[in-house]
Write a structure and sequence with these properties.
By secondary structure, this protein is α/β, with parallel strands linked by helices. The protein has one domain: Vaccinia Virus protein VP39 (Rossmann fold, 3-Layer(aba) Sandwich). The chain is built from 5 helices and 10 strands. The strands form 2 sheets. The chain has a 7-stranded mixed β-sheet. Strands 6-7-8 form a 3-stranded antiparallel β-sheet, with no helix packed on it. β6 and β7 form a beta hairpin. The longest helix is centred in the middle third of the chain and has 14 residues. Bound molecules: S-adenosylmethionine. The site of S-adenosylmethionine has 18 residues, from α2 and β2.
Length: about 200
């Protein structure tokens, strides 16, 4: 939706450089490549990078995928028209998330856009697990009701004020909440996400 809304009208999509941060096994990269964008991915898991390369090759898609941490993005400043992420940045501590936002800002062109999906502190699981920092929890040894985050060493639950502060250097910030309520026995527990759109 974000890509369609912002970039489908562009006549030469191959000139639009899009970076996915935490590209995992490459589903979103395949989509971006099939849609004709200049596609780039980054992941700090060497295994994920290899899986993504295979996944794209099998589908005859092309993307440059780099093995790197998002706290230090190996591209020059102002290189990208857009950065996207899906469920990746919230797998980091507060300290690293601040670095990641700095890097996103740096590698975007002026006017460049970001879209991300971050788990919110409205979720039932906020505060469960072992505290890592104020809003970040280790779920490696914690069994939660629906298992959404079980096994993850680091999950950061974003609050609205926190997100506004972290993104204040961007010229435009749009935050929307998307809350699912999942049946868990007799309980209905919320699972909340922030849909985050930023512009440099
Ligand atoms: C839940 S997966 C999501 C994958 C993909 N975005 C998707 O929607 O299919 C999260 C991915 O983000 C990567 N990741 C998390 N933190 C990262 C960081 N600081 N730098 C690079 N990759 C990161 C993980 O290695 C993992 O592949």
């Amino acid at each position: 939706m974000f890509m369609a809304h912002n970039y489908y009208h562009v006549p030469e999509r191959e000139n639009i450089r899009v970076l996915e941060i935490g590209s995992g096994t490459g589903c979103n990269l395949a989509f971006l490549s099939k849609e004709g964008f200049a596609t780039y991915g980054l992941d700090h898991s060497a295994f994920a990078v290899e899986m993504a390369k295979e996944f794209l090759e099998e589908r005859q898609c092309s993307a440059e995928i780099v093995h790197s941490c998002a706290t230090s993005i190996p591209f020059e400043s102002g290189f990208f028209d857009a950065c996207i992420e899906s469920n990746s940045i919230h797998c980091n501590s507060t300290e690293d998330i601040l670095k990641i936002f700095d890097e996103i800002y740096r590698v975007l062109k002026v006017g460049g856009k970001f879209f991300g999906i971050f788990v919110s502190d409205l979720s039932e699981e906020f505060g469960q697990g072992v505290p890592f920092d104020e809003r970040t929890f280790d779920f490696t040894a914690t069994k939660t009701l629906r298992g959404q985050f079980d096994g993850f060493p680091v999950i950061h639950f974003f609050g609205k004020e926190e997100l506004l502060e972290m993104t204040q250097k961007f010229s435009s910030v749009l935050l929307q909440t998307d809350i699912m309520t999942l049946e868990t026995g007799n309980n209905r527990k919320p699972l909340g996400y922030w849909l985050v759109e930023l512009q440099k």
